[in-house]
């Protein structure tokens, strides 16, 4: 059985509700993942260790969700050459502006692929991971093409329904 | 000879100075790329066409740099299943806040891997592209490990120099 | 029977509640419109096609409502010479700052007439469309003058009521 | 000879450099305009009077550029049923955020078609005015289609030049 | 009987709940005031007229509360030499940032004395009006000194109560 | 000879260039003032003492200019029943947003009449002080009416000049 | 019995709910503290006096929580050489941006150790005070090391639980 | 000879100009310090190691200066029970808003004592470190009292000079 391809990390279980959107996306595409709770500030050694070891276990993409002074994705990125995707979470009174800036404004040499704040971003983190994995997996590529087509059809259906309801 | 693996797109040559940081990074890692000027708003059909055709020519990652209401990365992402990296450029009086939000706040289903505003982000876009390509290219992986080590050594050297100058 | 003069587009039915304010305004002035669900990112070809064909069907003004990295109005504006009105919708944790900047900060050559964030903006999009159509329609002009007068009278009435209640 | 179709208003000659971008756009399309200095706060009666009388002189679109607590466009819009376009100008230490919000966040009933902050917005104000006038002027429509095509060709040329310089 | 010394204006009765804080403050100090509903955008002539006539009826201070692109205080200030106090109201999705900037960033020559956003600001508008009137009214001065002392005593009492509850 | 009617305070001589705009305004209206350097944080006792004693020396309005965490106006307002006008100064990298919020967001009971950030605000602080003093000084009232008329005429002249240059 | 080592000050009992987080942290570490209600603006003399006298009573660290134009921490810092910790509280419509900037942007010479906005910041203020006191108190140092370890173990436990629930 | 009491860390020598303000403050008070270049992202292991070992070498306070997604202070704080002071540096196009939020918005359990953005903050970091060390060093306490008095006298002198120049 295949080991996890994606490592999803969150700093606290209070971020779980948001990050479920990411897990659902990975599940939809049948991508095996592992979920880890590890904090940049409360368990830094464990977090670094996790990032340093991820590649050797076959993980290919890391996803980190964090709020406030969201350092988690950056701390992972500092320790690995794997692509790291960051999901800013709006868990402080500043509504995610803090998490967004703390995730995206990374210095030269250590990119974090930053997603939108909150649930949309969590879902998109999963999809970006799939897009990356699909580069060497034709089945995943096909699933992504189907997914894109279904999204497009979904829009057309919504359009038809709306017109049906209003117009006649 | 290998075709381009990365497609770098900018909406206008006024963004070229910033995006050179990206090209330099790709050059450092020996990753073949193609550079295209195409605008989401002034040449939309060409931009969509470019994104739709990129994969079949062997391009694996798209990078888009844009300022203001920066739609370029999103417009590319709408047309391809390749990973798309966005570089927000601070070319309006609002100092890049507009480009950052217009690039990163993508809706569900269409992620853009957003980098920091400006030159740091442009350089990191190149490095993230290398990280993605390295997943199936052990040579690139080794280069990334060397790059990370060199960065670390660079810090140590800077430290030694500074201490030499001040102290000793 | 007259065809639609205004094309109202929204990227998702989740924006419908806001955009109803726009439709109500158009209904109040008796302006025929068509309502379309089409997404800049989930159905890009359909959205571009819609914009390219709108003029030939007699549509004279386009209105687009979108949240987050709100590209919809800009994508329409890229494909048509019709005036395009954008309504930023506050549907992300960043409260509409993202949608506002992504709608208004358009580059040279492709204007989007941007309204206030949310319901006020949606209503005003309808009224601006009427103002544009009224330039060649004396009946609409008269309706607008009546509308302005009624607004003014409404303020006076509110004033009288308030004074009646408080004072005596 | 045709009277002015567009009324361009600025609150102070210090805004002239920005607003020249608007005038240039109108000149490019051969649209006759009138330029007026009138301030919402220093000459309020004159400003209101200007807006009230504009339509009867044949003016069809008003454009207002202002910085800081930019009330000019709103004050014009309060007095006319003509479409009013607002250009926020970054003339205070707050870099145009003040002018943008003071222009765009208009209450229900009185829309201002808001453009980007600064020179891009000023140019686009001119183009939007042309788009509105073109609805009843086939020559202007043709000019706009030519303009759009030229923009698109300009991108292709820039692309060719860049590729010539770098590669070939 | 004394005529009103303070003119309180709001653009819409939806701002009444906030502005009641202002009226309460004026009532506490026994300052006679008049309350008017008049909108900068829906009833501009009436609003200008109100401001132009206020002084001759004995009004000495104007207070205006408005949200969004809050032009009301500025429009009053343009028409009078009386001091004008502005209360920004958070009635849009942008949480009062728009109203604050649209009220405070007035151009040279036309000051608006801007208060905090919302209820605190509304109450303080009343108190500032009292402070201004007190400059020529020794009774009001005494009331303000008493008010300041009572505030100070209120803090001491709250302190005693809290300490009693916790410690003791 | 009349004593000073206005007390202008700045926390540091580095704010002097901005505050000169205020002094010039007071000079234009012939209002006697005193200028004091006193800091909320470096000389707190002196600052409090200054505010406590101002009224008894005949000062009627206080004006404070400060940047960063601009507490000066608030600290003065805490110690006096005189109206206090605050001028936020953009002397930090955050461009005056800090000074603006730290000046305007005063709690209930202690208003600060806040002006625009920087030179416009400094000039307007002087004019607001004149407006307040004019309530009991018919000569100042007349000067203010003349000033308003001159501003209005200045706009008309600027308009004529501009039209002369362009058109004629 | 030991006197209080930490002085916790809040401007109003409405900030008590937030500041309880701080008190709980101090209680957890067994650090004696005193709680005072005193306002920078409503009881300025008392607040200054409190700060001037704190050191002589053995207090070693001051903590101040305040919202809006949060001057409390700065006013304390102006009067003492003790370290002062500031907790910005989000009690205005501007969500704590005002309190954050008014607390952190202190001028040269008068630092305020600023914490995150709201409850996290209040709790961290208590912990920072403990860290400072621990420099001369080996028992507290040990407690802090235990605390850090417990936090780390807490993360591991949360991780185990989550994995147990999902996987197993 | 005494070992360093304060450890000053910066992520890159490009931050040196700002951090010199901190070193100057420590020099003025005769506090021995060590200066280290170490990056949270380019040399993470070294940075963590530095923080873990600082206390055992007698260092009592850590100061970290960083820009952009400023994680440095937080990464240090995660590894030590020493107080950590953070200086946000405005080295990105976002003018320090990113560095401020990424430094101050720390989660529960790991405080960073955040200073103002840029040079003022760097200087204040040095002074806060002195205030902390002074708690167990009466000489430093005396120096701080002298420093505060000198600041106060400096204000008085500036006041005298200004009055001399203008008045006399």
UniProtKB/TrEMBL annotation, chains A, B, C, D, E, F, G, H:
Pathway(s) served: Purine metabolism; IMP biosynthesis via de novo pathway; 5-amino-1-(5-phospho-D-ribosyl)imidazole-4-carboxylate from 5-amino-1-(5-phospho-D-ribosyl)imidazole (N5-CAIR route): step 2/2
Keywords: Isomerase, Lyase, Purine biosynthesis
Claim: Isomerase is one of the keywords in the record: yes
PurE domain span: 4-155
InterPro entries hit by this protein: PurE_ClassI, PurE_dom, PurE_prokaryotes
One Pfam family here: AIRC
A GO BP annotation: 'de novo' IMP biosynthetic process
Methyltransferase among keywords: no
SUPFAM superfamilies membership: N5-CAIR mutase (phosphoribosylaminoimidazole carboxylase, PurE)
Gene3D superfamilies xrefs: 3.40.50.1970
GO molecular function: 5-(carboxyamino)imidazole ribonucleotide mutase activity; lyase activity
Residues annotated to bind substrate: 12, 15, 42
EC number per UniProt: 5.4.99.18
Catalytic activity: 5-carboxyamino-1-(5-phospho-D-ribosyl)imidazole + H(+) = 5-amino-1-(5-phospho-D-ribosyl)imidazole-4-carboxylate
Source organism superkingdom: Bacteria
PANTHER family the record matches: PHOSPHORIBOSYLAMINOIMIDAZOLE CARBOXYLASE (PTHR23046:SF2), PHOSPHORIBOSYLAMINOIMIDAZOLE CARBOXYLASE CATALYTIC SUBUNIT (PTHR23046)
Biological function: Catalyzes the conversion of N5-carboxyaminoimidazole ribonucleotide (N5-CAIR) to 4-carboxy-5-aminoimidazole ribonucleotide (CAIR).
Family label: Belongs to the AIR carboxylase family. Class I subfamily.
Database matches in NCBIfam families: purE (TIGR01162)
Protein name: N5-carboxyaminoimidazole ribonucleotide mutase
Species of the source: Tectimicrobiota bacterium
Lineage: Bacteria, Pseudomonadati, Nitrospinota/Tectimicrobiota group, Candidatus Tectimicrobiota
């Amino acid at each position: 059985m295949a080991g996890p391809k994606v490592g999803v990390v969150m700093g606290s279980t209070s971020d779980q509700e948001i990050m479920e959107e990411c897990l659902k996306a990975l599940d939809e595409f049948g991508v095996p993942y592992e979920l880890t709770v590890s904090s940049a500030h409360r368990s830094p050694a464990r977090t670094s260790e996790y990032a340093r070891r991820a590649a050797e276990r076959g993980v290919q993409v890391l996803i980190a969700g964090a709020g406030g002074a969201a350092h988690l994705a950056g701390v992972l990125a500092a320790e690995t050459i794997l692509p790291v995707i960051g999901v800013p979470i709006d868990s402080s009174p500043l509504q995610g502006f803090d998490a967004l800036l703390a995730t995206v404004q990374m210095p030269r040499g250590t990119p974090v692929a930053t997603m939108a704040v909150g649930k949309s971003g969590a879902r998109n983190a999963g999809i970006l991971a799939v897009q990356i994995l699909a580069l060497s997996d034709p089945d995943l590529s096909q699933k992504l093409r189907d997914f894109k087509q279904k999204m497009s059809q979904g829009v057309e259906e919504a359009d038809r329904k709306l017109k049906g309801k209003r117009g006649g």
